[in-house]
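User: Hey, my collaborator sent me this sequence without any context and asked if I could get a structure. I don't really work with proteins. Can you help?
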Amino acid sequence: MPVIAILGLGEAGSAIAADLVALGVRVRGYDPIPERSVAGLERVGSEIEAVRGAHVILSVNWARVALEVAQTVAPTLGPGQLFADLNTAAPALKQSLAAVLAPTGALFADVALMSPVPGRGLRTPALVSGPGAARFVATMGALGMPVEPVGPEAGAAAARKLVRSVFFKGMAAAVGEALEAARRLGCEQETWQNIAETLAAADARLVDRLVEGSLRHARRRREEMAAAAEMLKALGITPHMAQATEAWLADLFEQTRQRPVE
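Assistant: No problem. I've predicted the 3D structure and written it out in structure-token form, which is a compact way to encode the shape of the chain:
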């Protein structure tokens, strides 16, 4: 069994740590908030104490502190260790982390968790890339994590997750904006039902219809979204998604008007 250090014992880190402890893995953990811990975990007082001698280090905190954490522990790391960053961050940051760790001889793995961790813990599906991808798959895959390698470059896993985030988080924002408008217009339940039925009936062909329809009707749909944005303003709602969609359709129209789609 490897010794695994977990840096960050928030919602995700604690769930993964609890599953590892249940498997009999020796887990050392650190979090700057003293109250955070997990039964059976060896709680230490610093990042450096946690990583010293650990076979695998899982950094599960926030993107805004990921580089600072890596710089803090780098002098303690050496060949044979694996440092995996599980934070949701831009590919450029993952590449910076890899550069910080490269001189230490430790392997770096860029890990993208592809589903919410609560309720899944160690069994959260993940993508991994970077110099330490194969090692991460071999170690964490053997412990039950469903992880897929996507290349040797740090940032490749992060990029794939963030591309999906553009859709999923954007969809959530659009649904929220539409439902708020519907609430103020007195048709929230009707709108909710319409959205739910559309999602329930969706299949792979929907993607093609969305792309093709936007290409063919960008100008008309831009005007439609401009009207929607004006309505939202009249309702006292800042039309974040409506205006963004209008701008996207305007760009799309400019790109395609000289190349009409057959």
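In plain terms: Residues 146 and 223 are 45 Å apart (CA to CA). You can pass these tokens on to your collaborator as they are.
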